[in-house]
Design a protein that fits this description.
152 residues, D-Maltodextrin-Binding Protein, domain 2, 5 helices, globular
């Protein structure tokens, strides 16, 4: 799989369910989210639309109910980053299994307006290069994100 990339998204399924390994394995199943405003929903919904709406999407108002939907069988999966799924396991005793490999990667970062942000972008890029070169970014990624998610 190579070096880690930014924001890998994984399927989270019931503990002990090894039948789901990809979006394609969700045919006839249900995927649960808390909102339509997160990248996780966008990625799953886009895949679903491009493949003939193979799975149903439902919503819960809070993460505790999302976890309950998976545990009870009302939903079969969710989509999120590893650290978020691990946090749900810790906070809600969700017993969600994290499916490998990721179903999606996103390396996109939208921080600057193309017309007015060029100078700020140059300044930030130079500072980030310095932090990357001296190892600070990797250390921060390991500490706060649980892995090295710096660009190679």
């Amino acid at each position: 799989m190579g070096a880690p990339r930014a924001f890998p998204l994984h399927l989270g399924v019931r503990e002990g369910d090894f039948s789901i390994r990809s979006f394609a394995d969700l045919k006839g199943k249900t995927v649960v989210f808390t909102t339509t405003t997160e990248n996780e929903y966008y990625v799953a919904n886009k895949w679903n639309e491009e493949h003939g709406r193979q799975f149903k999407i439902i919503f819960e108002s809070i993460y505790a109910l999302l976890c309950e939907a998976i545990a009870s069988g009302r939903a079969d999966a969710t989509v999120s980053m590893i650290r978020s799924l691990e946090n749900r396991n810790k906070e809600y005793n969700a017993r969600i299994r994290i499916v490998q490999p990721p179903v999606n990667y996103s390396d996109a970062y939208y921080l600057f307006n193309k017309q007015t942000g060029a100078e700020l972008q140059k300044t930030l890029d130079a500072a980030l290069k310095e932090l990357k070169d001296d190892g600070t970014l990797k250390r921060l990624s390991l500490k706060w994100l649980g892995g090295d998610f710096t660009a190679k």
